[in-house]
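Sample intake sheet
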Amino acid sequence: MRRLPVSIQAQDPTRSPFSRAALVLLAGVATALFALTVLLHVAGGGPNGGPNGGPDRGGSGIRSVSAIGYAGFYDLLRRLGRPVAQTSGSVDTLVGTRGTLVVVDPDFSRFSRSSRFSRSSRFSREASDGAKGLPDERPVNERLVNAGLPDVPRLLLVLPKWRGVRDGRKPAWLSRAELIPPEDVLRVAALIGRSEIVRKKWPGEWKTDVTGFTPVGPGLVQLVNLKGMRPLVGDEDGILAGEISDGNRKILVLSDPDVLSNHGIVRGDNAAFMVALLDELRFWNNDDPEAPIVFGAIPSRVRQEKISPIGLLFRFPFVVVTVLAGCAAALLVISGVRRFGAPQSPKPPLDFGRATLIDNGARLLDYAGHHTDVLRRYVRMTIYSVAQALHAPCSFTEGGPGESGLIAWLERVGRARGVRRSCGDILHGALASGSDEANDDRFARLFESVREIYRWRLEMLGDGEAGNSPS
């Protein structure tokens, strides 16, 4: 009751079930988890591919999404349903007798350190001889194997052209791209035979074009003149795409990587040209459409690591789920060890008895207000109910002229019955308490008058009558 003395007021039932410390803890944990998730997304990664893992965003490898990378071509083949694969293991085993090996932008300095190209130590001497224009009379197969390339039946060799420098502030961009000196390109072309590198403006049309698609590009085109290679696309100055076959092996050489790089694969018919060229190679002496196309070179110079399924849980992006699951498990354990906040009181069972009816009535009266008028009327109604129970002989009306006579008759009966309290004094005290509910002292005296009139009623009627009283 809002205006009752403190000693008889009920406790506040709207108190929050959570303490302030528990709310601060929950908010802090939620904020920390959100910040950790954003941090892992921004800085997440690992040792595979680029600087933070995933794709190599600044190099020129098959994982690179930079302008001179080949991730777009690899993704195009995958979307077209070609059985493409990357490997850092045994190329010979994965390619087999029906597969096709694709070597893009070969980095033979890396091959010399790799166990899967065991005889690459001779490459430096052999390539240097080829760059000087010295003839090498050995068969192509022997030169490739001695240089460290595996002995596979179908090979697509893409000669290098660009060297990119990664932008330190934006890893997905290149700060600049530089043309590789022709001497370095000859070091690779010498594996096929004595050759010459020609760079000129891209021609409007090709003198030789057996694919049906015309490759295009910006700036300078890089062509190769190679003895013994049949041109597939070329002109009088050199060959853009050519082939060498000896019955047991077929080698396609693409002299300009701009045709299939990320910035060039979207130009003209370059995408259709590369798909047709690769399909023609992989179906040479092979009728298996599921034979793999293996990209065996990883020019990013980052060796792939074998990761166990458990190790994947601690690498981006799976580490985000691992951290969140661990935090959820920790919160579950904490909630089981110690309860958050104050316990809520259970709701009492539904009671249809007289006590519930009285309690609800009291709540309604308290909600409606007018406590002073209600308590004074209670005092008067108690006096009148006692008078009716004792069959008072005089008539009376509430607040009327007969009220003083009724009170005098009740006081005589009370004295005869040994009642010490006077109903007249109690009624006078209730009426004299005033109507200001904000005055706690007056309201307390009024409430004390209510208690006194209830005890007077019990004394006047005795225990038996008092037991039937609704008060």
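Comment: The CA atoms of residues 379 and 450 lie 6 Å apart. The two ends are 18 Å apart (CA to CA).
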